[in-house]
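User
Take a look at the entry that follows and flag anything odd:
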Amino acid sequence: MKIGVITELLGGKFLDTIDVAGKLGVSGIQIYAAHGDDGFNFLNLKPGELKSIKSKAEDNQLEISAVCADISDKSFQVISECSERVDVTCRVIDAAVKLGVSIITTHIGAVPESQQDPVYPVMVESLRQVANYAASAKCVMAIETGPELADVLKAFIQAVDSPGIGVNLDPANLRGVSCENPVYAAETLAPYIVHTHAKDAINTYVGSPAKFYKLRNLDGSLRQIAARASGFKEVPLGQGMVEWDAYLAALKKIGYNGFLTIERECGADPAADIRMAVAFLKDKLGNL
């Protein structure tokens, strides 16, 4: 397995973050399709600018492991918004292809547990359009885990039924929000895992993952869920509820040899936590 990092979380201008990542001793980077600090937006880049990104990564001996397509406020769950969300995601895929990247990750919103839920077929059809488009470009659209249990996500992927759909496994979201054992999730979702995030978390109280991830109705209104949202606190790698030895062993057992991409979205000094996470993972992988 290889260690990567999400560049945006290192702070600073986008191209500069690639240089910072190059000094961390990692093998790859995942990039957001939009970067808040300097107005960088994947969809507005010209071919020369995309080439500059690719060259910068190569100069630092970094592989671009994936592109995160979480740049639209439109939902796969809302009928009036699906078309725009599909379009934006497909445009991210087009840009990723020009970078030579074949994995695009995104949150899709909470998948309802029941396939009879009216939102379910809308999400299936929307993601099927994206997945088929990704497959035609020899890419995979990887759904980030967390809003639902592994069995629910597996059934959803099977319903989408496209070679262009996969999983970006985030153990912290699973353990902290859904109270799912990442080992079980790795085993259950094994055929679909193409990318992972290395993140840790604590579940502060058991609640509704669907409420945490703001499940919406077909008309765009928030689903009224009686239970309170799950309690979630992100913490530095190794300080949360993810059992890393067992989790990494499970990934190895299923034959996963892709990236463990460090994601540290908060904290007093995320960059320092990321450096610590690199050392933590190198130690774990060295003893695996």
